[in-house]
Amino acid sequence: MTVSSPLDEDAVAYVLGTMDGAERASFEAALLDDAELAALVWRAEEGLRPLADAVPSRRPRRRVLAQAERRIFGEERTAARASRGAARFWRALASLLALAATGIAAAALVLAFRPEALLPPAAERVAAIAREGGPAVPARLRPDGTLVVAAFAAPDAPGTPFLWLAEADGPPRPLARLDPAAPTAIPLGRDIASRVLDGARLLVTAEAGGDAPPATPSPRRLGEGVLTPL
């Protein structure tokens, strides 16, 4: 049997029934008010279940089982034992419901603050940006939504190279200024990248400097390439 994480020793002893009377009574009293302890018992029961499953079970007749319990535990303890067993079941069920509620709440938070995490990965695409007076510059749209463009050395001309994403519907989208000496990584985000269609174009124009991106591309084109599936 393989267990992903160690089981609590006291919970295991309780599940296996190796505690003495006083110790077991104290442990069960703690179970009434300790949800974390109840979760540990539930983990121990589930972790040890393969051992029980490996042994063929033979359930005795109800009358025989009741007689055996009365002889071992007595009338009052037999009734109390049945009551504690029901309490353990409901506590374990409550712990499971609490864990499920936590998972649902976590998923809701992810959806509220990071909806892109639930989106499928974008299709991987590449482009060769043909540029004026030099070899083509490779670009790659990664599955995580990051667009990487190799160093783009612009000719001696006013302005700096600026990258745009142009699709069939709508005006070109401004992306980023390109580094002439090193690759430029542009996090489009999976929500945007997953909507990029085959045949979308990458445009590079010469734009004036400044922090704010230009609203529209200038007429001075420095390069252009088409995104195609890898």
Description:
The mean pLDDT is 77. The chain has 2 domains: 9-113, no CATH class; 125-229, Immunoglobulin-like (Sandwich), CATH 2.60.40. The chain has 5 helices and 9 strands. The two termini are 44 Å apart. A hairpin with a 6-residue loop joins strand 4 and strand 5 (173-177). It has helices at 9-16, 21-31, 35-53, 62-113, 190-193; strands at 125-131, 137-141, 146-149, 160-166, 173-177, 184-187, 201-207, 221-226, 228-229. Helix content is 41%, strand content 20%. The longest helix is centred in the middle third of the chain and has 52 residues, at 62-113. It is rod-shaped and about 100 Å long. The chain is an alpha+beta fold and 230 residues long. Strands 1, 2, 3, 4, 5, 6, 7, 8 and 9 form a 9-stranded antiparallel β-sheet that branches.
Fill in the keyword field for this structure:
230 residues, 2 domains, alpha+beta, Immunoglobulin-like, 41% helix, 9-stranded antiparallel β-sheet, 20% strand, 5 helices
What's the gist of this structure?
With 230 residues, the chain is α+β, with helices and mostly antiparallel strands. Helices cover 41% and strands 20% of the residues.
Helices and strands in order:
Elements: H1 9-16, H2 21-31, H3 35-53, H4 62-113, E1 125-131, E2 137-141, E3 146-149, E4 160-166, E5 173-177, E6 184-187, H5 190-193, E7 201-207, E8 221-226, E9 228-229
